Amino acid sequence: MKKIGLNTEGNWYKGNLHTHSTNSDGRITPEEIVRIYKDHGYQFLAFTEHELYTHNRELSDEDFLVLPGVELSCNNPDPWRIYHILGIGRHAAGEHPSAENGFSDKQRFPVRKWEDLGSVQTVLDEIWQAGNLAVFNHPIWSRLELTDFIDLDGYFAMEIYNYGCAVESHTGLCIDYWDSLLRRGRKIWGVATDDAHFALEDYCGGWVMVNAPELTIKAVTSALLEGNFYSSSGPEIYRFEIEDGVVKADCSDAREIHFVTYESFGNSLFARSGESLRHGEFRLSGEELYVRVEITDHSGRTAWSNPIFLKEE
């Protein structure tokens, strides 16, 4: 029996899902940003301005896709807790099946007033109802404990690595919270992003590699929703699957390969001095709820697969 964690039959597209321009608090224009990402080998980008939904359709071409997007906020003033949620558009302009609910280009939103956690849930619900994918952003930077958001739902992914937060204040990595949710049976994907503002060198450091049949809004966001991508700050993952109880991964030159599981312990592989790993495998016990793989290269950069769930309800 085989379980595929990463379908590689389509095309690989490199993208950043979290970007700010001069349309909010970024330092450079959308046109300049697209040029930077093209020069760094990206194929798609989402502009996620604070409280401003934008399409930027004119910046897309046959080789580069701009996704509609926004970053919405609802903050608890006492104790100070920050809730930032990305909305990534799943439809091109005019394609949303319920036009009265879809967000429009250049639509502005207020920062939502905090009443209780239900205020944040309302934001998540509105994002989904308007035909967008919701991403829960940078929990460590936001000063959140797991108990501050564990009851929220409606987001398909969490930022497990935010390069901008890592550069600014070493608060970009959020693997423990992700595993805590996965251990509770929550099916949430992990994304690496830039959260680029361009005041610092906070760009082109965290990305997703999406496998999709074509470079369109529908194809890319469908692959994201299905989890057919991996996240990275450097390494590449070529294969991730389970066959006859053995989980296998192929990757670019690596110093370490870690198979992370629960309830059982996983397994870690380390390259010998002066050598590299390009393949790893590990026999599962049969008690695991999920398994995912992390690849670390010789520069300490990491790639993260999404989990394969082993006990489907």
UniProtKB/TrEMBL annotation:
InterPro entries: PHP_domain (IPR052018), Pol/His_phosphatase_N (IPR003141), Pol/histidinol_Pase-like (IPR016195). GO terms for molecular function: 5'-3' DNA exonuclease activity; 5'-3' RNA exonuclease activity. SMART domains: POLIIIAc. SUPFAM superfamilies: PHP domain-like. It comes from the Bacteria. Residues 15-76 form the Polymerase/histidinol phosphatase N-terminal domain. This is CehA/McbA family metallohydrolase. It comes from Candidatus Mediterraneibacter faecigallinarum.
